[in-house]
Amino acid sequence: MMVARSDTKFINFLHQELSLTTADIAVALRHRELDRGPLPMLLWQYGLVDLEQLERIFDWLENQI
């Protein structure tokens, strides 16, 4: 599975700040390839993050721009 360089910082954030496992992230990445949905929403839809964590993700992404 290929991960874009732009996703590397985001994946590091998910590991370090939200303590998601590599397996959790891999599930969402696989579904992103099929569903073409945004990774944060897929993480939430598949129950890998809760609403508070989803908000933290969006805050982090907003600060990366």
UniProtKB/TrEMBL annotation:
Looking up InterPro entries in the UniProt record yields: DUF2949 (IPR021336)
Q: Name one Pfam family in it.
A: DUF2949
Q: What is this protein called?
A: DUF2949 domain-containing protein
Species: Hassallia byssoidea VB512170
